[in-house]
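Hello,

Following up on my earlier ticket. Below are the two sequence lines again, exactly as submitted.
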Amino acid sequence: MDAEEESGIRTERKVKKAAQLLFFRRHRTPGVKGWELKKALGDDYVEVIAVLNSVLDTLGMEVKRISEEGGEREGEEKKAERDRFMIVLKSPVIEKASGERIDNIAMLSATLAYIISKQGKVPRKAVEEFLSGKFPKQRVYFAIDRYIKQGYVGEDDKALYIGWRTRAEVDRKALLDLILT
Amino acid sequence: MKFYKVPGKQMKFDELFRLLNFCKTIQTEGTDPFDLDVKKFLETLKQYHNKWKSLDDLLLDAEAIAELAKIIELQGKWIKDRSSSFYIDPVLLELKLKMLEPQQLATAFFKSWHPIISLDRITPQRLTEGLAYWDALLPLGERIDEFPFPSAVKSTFDIEDLIELNILSKTEFDDSIRAVLNELEVRGRIEYHDFIYGASFETSVKRAYLTSYLVNEGKAELDINPLEEEVFISPSYYTNVNAQAHHTQSRSIPISLSYEDWLQWMQKRNQE
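Thanks for your patience. The regenerated structure is below:
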């Protein structure tokens, strides 16, 4: 077996491992931190993820890299260790990918659109009052707490902002366009 | 807020505190940061700059500059947001959101949603770890401190609590009990469920609740036949109720009421 062949086998093994790490949940929060990938795959984990990405592309999926504090990232290898990596559907072709009630999805959709329209941060009370125009208050409180727990919405000093999970999963521009059209 | 005895100084601080509070309101409420006139704010600070003397004065000056810097940062962000593709008039969007049906909102979300793919699977290794954990776990009796008994339940309401909370008046409650007692006296000894159950399940539960007070106060008696599983209720004709209560050992008798049972009773009554 020559060196090139050996390197190919090693890369293939790493890509398989990366896929399993990213597909299967290891913590309560979905996704894997950069440092975990580095520990499991080695220093060249960013390149391994790039190879995995090209494989996933044919299946309509992609690896997304999200920083805890900001938006999507590309490059900046040093910061990658702190970022969260996850596989998302690139172009959903199935109608349903969630068992959530339609009411909860509607409230989430309205909450996100409302926050985005108010420059990304809005007092929690304002969101509660807005949603309670269509849903009972108790359900609204419960739903907001749930979105915070799921990572779709963040809360800081009684103000709500767009959470990391929304940044990873939701095409915010498309959401606003769909609501307005 | 600090108070200063010199009138001119008081006025000066009032103005600064007002501006500081306005800065904080913009940050917390998310209102338009351009509502603050930065130039005027700086001119106000400049006007008093040479008059600052004490450490408190300088600290206030520094706080004002820090708050102003935050507002300028927000103004920068505001311009960035407005110029980005995400900017939409909030009023227009709010109106649109109010008009849309939940179904339409959910559809918009699903169309812009790229869900994370995350699966759960128990691996053989994880099962082995679970088994090792089980083996290492001490019996419950030896770990009882990890599961303390819940403290006594204090959340139930008795009649005194309801009266205290003005949910029920004492007179209203006494009248209801008297009405049930009068009915029992008219009907005499009767099967408990026949007495309790009425036209609706709600009133039946209410009667059961009131009857429990009659029994508790010794104004009615329960006669239980365990073999036949029958319970009869009758008015108590003892003259000295209190004496009776003192000589008889009290005990709790649970009698179940359920919606299904009430439905069956109704069907039986209609057939009769």
